[in-house]
Amino acid sequence: MASYLHDTPENAASDGDWLDRVSRIRTAHLQRCKDRGHRFSMLTSYDAMTARIFDEAGIEVLLIGDSAGNTVFGYPSTVPVTLEELIPLTRAVAGSARRAMVVTDLPFGTYEESPAQAVRSAVRLMKEGGAHAVKMEGGAYYAEHVRAMTQAGVAVMAHIGYTPQSENTLGGHRVQGRDDAAQRLLDDALALEEAGAFSVLIEMTAEPAVRAAEEALRVPTVGIGAGGSTTGQVLVWQDMLGLGEGRTPRFVKKYADLRGVVSQAAGAYRKDVLDGAFPAAEHVFDQ
């Protein structure tokens, strides 16, 4: 039988650093953040090395996002990403993270047909990938999908607002939740919560609508381009560390310029190779 000592909110410290003392982040801890007015952090991760680094840095949730389509596979959007592509990425992250909760996206085409299809896809991510939970895009229409997955034992993070898998029907990258759409967003959030979602991620949405959802929902919200009222915040790690090229989205804060660092290092390596400076004597085996 598994030991859950120190894993439940009741066993966590009651002072301000209680979250740092949790040995494995679970949905109950994220709910406690919401209940106590605390916040939590979330980053994407697609490999063992970044998973270990982010985990050691204390990031509470690691997301194997279908953003891997852009950042790993070089696709023009998230739409082409398959379940078969995300399973090994999930396995790499889940096998390396010791404390963080691991959540994986349900890719486009793996859940829309029926609640049964959603359950099958989610179960594969958990059994073959080791995910602790899945994230699914879509509003109230998919409430029964959420209900079916939670009844099957799958923890589900809902995703509303701007949903990248639906960019073709949304008309591109457009801010959601403005004017009359704010009420629809709130209705979606409440329906997904009622169906059993343990959290609702809201992307690229006007802050007043997000604030209304955070206040109305019992479960925690996670924001990306959704202002500061959400319980949690998530960013794509390559954006956060400045690996991307071109225009940076308004909602992204760069905490480093890794693109510049990596480019400079690669150029220095090439110069050393061409000049014969690498490998030097200290890099050569004598026998």
From TrEMBL:
Fetch the Gene3D superfamilies from UniProt.
Phosphoenolpyruvate-binding domains
Give the record's cofactor note, including how many are bound: Binds 1 Mg(2+) ion per subunit.
User: What does the UniProt keyword field contain?
Assistant: Cytoplasm, Magnesium, Metal-binding, Pantothenate biosynthesis, Transferase
- Sample GO molecular function, one term: 3-methyl-2-oxobutanoate hydroxymethyltransferase activity
Per UniProt, subunit arrangement is: Homodecamer; pentamer of dimers.
Entry function: Catalyzes the reversible reaction in which hydroxymethyl group from 5,10-methylenetetrahydrofolate is transferred onto alpha-ketoisovalerate to form ketopantoate.
Protein name, entry field: 3-methyl-2-oxobutanoate hydroxymethyltransferase
